[in-house]
From TrEMBL:
Residues covered by the MaoC-like domain: 547-643
Domain Aldehyde dehydrogenase residues, every copy: 20-441
Pfam families in alphabetical order: Aldedh (PF00171), MaoC_dehydratas (PF01575)
Gene: paaZ
Name of this protein: Phenylacetic acid degradation bifunctional protein PaaZ
UniProt keyword terms in alphabetical order: Oxidoreductase
Amino acid sequence: MTLLRSHLSGTWQTGSGDGRPLYDAVTGDEVARVSAEGLDLGAALAHGRRTGGPALRELTFHQRAALLKALGGHLREHREELYAVSARTGATLGDSKFDIDGGIGVLLAYASKAKRELPNDTVFVEGAVEPLGRGGSFLGQHVLTPRHGVAVQVNAFNFPVWGPLEKLAPAFLAGVPTLIKPASPTAFLTARLVELIVDSGLLPDGAVQFVAGSLGDCFDHLTGQDLVSFTGSASTAQTLRSHPGIVRNSVRFSAEADSLNLAALGPDATPGTEEFDLFVTALTTEMTVKAGQKCTAIRRAFVPRAHVDAVVEAVTARLASVVVGAPGAEGVRMGALASLDQREEVRRSVKALRDAGRIVFGDPDRVEVTGADADRGAFVSPLLLVGDPDRAEPHEVEAFGPVSTVLPYDTPAQLIDYAARGQGSLAGSVVSADPGFVREVVLGVAPFHGRVHVLNARDAGESTGHGSPLPQLVHGGPGRAGGGEEMGGVRGVFHHMQRTAVQADPDSLAAITGRWVTGAQRYTTDVHPFRRHLEELRPGDCLVAGPRRVTREDVEHFAEFTGDTFYAHMDEAAAAANPLFGQRVAHGYLVVSLAAGLFVDPDPGPVLANFGVDGLRFLTPVRFDDELTVTLTCKQLTPRESAGYGEVRWDADVTRQDGESVARYDVLTLVAKKDA
Ligand code: NDP
């Protein structure tokens, strides 16, 4: 039987020895073997740092995003092939799509988020400039730069494609190379994924490496620039977190581990309501998708005591129609667990749960199987229990399979107390249409959850479901759930970067960040900045226009024309009584409009559009006959990859005759490239 290949230090390599056999979850046949014996993981980490890291850091966020997008497209073209391999992990086609399409979706979502939310640059400038001195010559600014290490990911067996990709996307965008270590039982699917990635030739050498088998002495070679992201059991998380290589070097370690996720049915959601049915459907779905092997699956189903029997009856009826068997066989809705070991683990856990409850659906030792041999495949029946919430087991024992326990509760306060007994979870659902109950429970359970999902008739049509982690949102949870955070949009990218507080004078800060800041050098020339193409502009290019007197007639004309006859502009007596103004003042929007009239260059030219303003503040009232001057300064240039234009952010400072700023904002424009 063949050993799975690892991709390390730029080559495909195979470990020595016979390796550990991996089995088809459905037939029990051996699929492949894994061994990392003799592979030099220290050298692989060095290769990532020396080759992959520098290549990625040369690219801007947008260029990395374009590669991620291309990779997503490439994998999408090969997904049928991945589905076929995935079936051998026990996954139905639906399960495979969850894993494979879900993973590709993360790549694409991150690529698109990066283009919108990150600059076309290699450094991320975070937050506003902090003035640190009175004279404006000493400023502070946080910047984020890529860590010069490798993101080592240790994955769980249940998502052999989504797991590696959801960790890869943010690391890659940050400019940090990745070393993928899949869980052995399903490593043959991750191996195929990595072959597709490497063969695509899209990513720079060293950007993605892969080890099939154990990590050996890998952690001994970690440095303070590396990161480790782990998904799996709480006990392994604890072992890895306290590894001397992690502790000694303060390696950024993030874990996502066991989680006793909950769903709570609201007292308003009585049998017959839409919410009651949504709860029943969510619970059944979470039990059966991936045969319940989802870190987010609902383990604890809290139900108002009066409705326990009705919920059990409805869920039992649904589960009775679930056909268990070989993926692809006629009618099969639920596949196998990932391995026979995993089935033993589930049976052991159910035994513990039974001590604090009773099984109301299914038999842990018997299941009718379609299209496969029930003894050779890792099949198990869906198992529903009713438990005692005052016992510890339902809050502590995670049966990582199609297993949930219905638990009665009496009051929202009691429900919140029970929720906390899970000691930290990834996801919770509150199924209710009662805003009072929803608020109390969501805020009550939030400190114990990474994500809380409110489900009712109003959002059900668009809800992505209880169990789906989304690239835009944080995935992780406190305490038992590992204490880490993954994804969460650009937060996940920043996790792989170092935040540094830079203290400097305005010119140095402008040079470091590539952005003009207040107090830095301005450049005025004869050419209007709106007549310059993107390549011809530089931060600091500036135009001073005005003065323009604002008359009573201007204000009254503007009021009549727009319909904005607010008393502060139009009613002498009322304006006089206003404690902020004391007299009639010009509209803020008039000031901004007059400023545009001052700085605009009217003829056709490289400026294609004005797409908004950011941070508009009216700072000082403008009275009749005040004179306005506007200073427009090019602040930041963001060329768009594969577009004939880019974004230009301008600082607009509108001042009065006494030099006082009356309005300040950023004007956002699209400016053509010269060769477009
Ligand atoms: P493990 O914690 O045993 O394994 C997770 C990953 O860690 C695998 O890649 C495994 O590799 C690796 N690993 C294990 N030991 C070490 C070590 N000493 N050094 C380095 N890497 C190590 O979890 P399992 O995948 O076996 O699942 C066991 C239980 O964990 C499940 O039954 C379930 O309760 C829980 N789980 C929770 C998940 C979650 O997301 N919350 C997801 C999956 C499982 P290898 O496979 O090669 O040993």
